Amino acid sequence: MPELIFLKLGGSLITDKTRPYTPRLDVLKRLALEIADAQHTTPGLSLVLGHGSGSFGHTAAKKHGTRQGVASAQAWQGFTEVWWQASQLNRYVMQSLREAGILALALAPVSAVTARDGRVAHWDLTPLRSALSAGLLPVVYGDVIFDEARGGTILSTEDLFEYLAAELRPRRILLAGLEEAVWADFPANTRRVETITSTSFEMLRDSVGSSHGADVTGGMESKVRQMLELVGKIPGLQAQIFSGETPDNLKRVLAREHLGTIIKQ
Asked: I want to staple 217 with a disulfide (CB 3.0 to 4.6 A). Which of 34, 73, 156, 203 is the partner?
């Protein structure tokens, strides 16, 4: 099998996170076309795609506090509302991929994943592995999850990638967002960080910033920390944070250009 790549399209990139339930359809269309171009340029490109919930799932999740746990009837009502909004955004993503001619298949995490205290505990990966073997593009996304300790919770795409990376051993994890890179002085954004390791991150932890708009799963600091944990566990793995806002950046990064910030051991 060719080199496996995990790609996340951030919620801040594919939605307007300052306006509830607002997809950025033009951006989704362009990103899908860039993925299609990369597939044509690199036949056999092996890719798992994930996307955030942006102003869809995060808006509902913040209102209902779903990530912290679900117990009451009202909280379960919120659980289903978050599920609905996350699945609505996924339909926009899948439509864009379909219109770009990409053979993609959405695999809803809520139907396959069980969590234990906010982390993946069980996940039958047979459908996802089968999709990869068939040359399809499996798509996962931040979603509500039944949790053995909390009743219910929310797992972000990074949470899902953490489990998938241990099982599938990708060579690269690509996080496409709004920011050009990780900044050492967010939000002034005058000092770009080219490379982050576990040692250098200790000096950056308090200055890399949070997220734009509603986000119940953490901002940039959380994303960098999760990626550092992963690259520390999987030899040879690198993560890359870059802007998908600039046309052709995604295609260039899929072609191994070092845009943005590299996270490595």
From this structure: 156
Q: What is the CATH number of the domain that holds 253?
A: 3.40.1160.10
Interval 112-155: pLDDT, tens? 999 999 999 999 999 999 999 999 999 999 999 999 999 999 99
Report which residue type is found at 124.
D
Q: Residue 32 sits in which domain range?
A: 4-263
Q: Is-above-0.85 flag for pTM?
A: yes
E runs forming strands in the chain: 4-9, 46-51, 104-106, 113-115, 120-123, 137-141, 143-147, 151-155, 172-177, 182-183, 192-193, 195-196, 238-243, 261-263
Residues 131 and 107 sit within 8 Å (Cβ to Cβ): yes
Residue pair 150/118 in contact (Cβ under 8 Å)? The answer is yes
Residue 180's closest CA among 86, 245, 247, 112?
245
Q: Rg of the chain's alpha carbons, rounded to an integer?
A: 17
Alpha helices by DSSP H, 149-261: 157-168, 198-204, 220-233, 249-254
In the chain, the largest separation of any two C-alpha atoms, in whole Å, equals 51
Q: What angle do CA 34, 210, 149 make, to 5 degrees?
A: 95
